[in-house]
Amino acid sequence: MAITLNDAAAFQAAIGDQLGDLPPDVAAVLAAGVAAGEDAYRATPALPGQTALNLRIGRYVIRDEDLPVVETIGSAAAGLATVAASAGIAWPAIVPAITAIATLGWTLWRKGALLTPRQLRVVGLLRNLGPCPAATLAPLAAVDGVVPEDALDGVLQSLKEVETRDGTLVALAVIDGQMFWRARGV
């Protein structure tokens, strides 16, 4: 069943409600990130010829198929919060990273790419770190067991071709001649 909301504040609150298993401060930051992703998506002009059913009537809707995406974003961000807390990093220092992961995950979803928690963590790290070798990514992605070091190469390879809902293949990560991985936008 879809939830229809009249404004951005109600949308953000409803997303926060969907993240009820998380600590309230983490859920609030994630909801703000998802709302920022929705706003960014809405601000993107529709391309000619790609406007079929891309209705933007001012209301916000959370559909049943959006809920697993919210859960994935919550899982990825909760892992990041746990890692930061165990490393003694203060909460205000990780708020931008958590917000960025939520915004990224929602924006990719709205543009048609559904990522797993592993893929979201790796592409989020690549976006935050910039170009880097897999050896740099491995210990960061492996924290709290989300992406075991032996699975990182498979996750990176899967990000080279991500299928969107319309069947288009997009590369969310690429590797250069120096073996540095970097994130690409959609």
List keywords for this structure.
single chain, 186 residues, mainly alpha, two-stranded antiparallel sheet, two-stranded antiparallel ribbon, 7 helices, globular
In brief:
This protein is mainly alpha-helical. Helix content is 54%, strand content 9%. It has helices at residues 8-18, 24-43, 67-86, 91-110, 117-129, 134-142, 152-159; strands spanning 3-5, 60-62, 162-163, 169-170, 173-175, 181-183.
Any overview of this molecule?
- The protein is mostly helical.
- It has a two-stranded antiparallel ribbon with strand order 1-2.
- It contains seven helices and six strands; from the N terminus they run βααβαααααββββ.
- The chain has helices at 8-18, 24-43, 67-86, 91-110, 117-129, 134-142, 152-159; strands at 3-5, 60-62, 162-163, 169-170, 173-175, 181-183.
- The longest helix is centred in the N-terminal third of the chain and has 20 residues, at 24-43.
- α1 (8-18) crosses α2 and α3 (67-86) packs across α5 (117-129).
- β3 and β4 form a beta hairpin.
Secondary-structure blueprint of this entry?
Blueprint: E1 3-5, H1 8-18, H2 24-43, E2 60-62, H3 67-86, H4 91-110, H5 117-129, H6 134-142, H7 152-159, E3 162-163, E4 169-170, E5 173-175, E6 181-183
Antiparallel strand pairs: 1-2, 3-4, 5-6
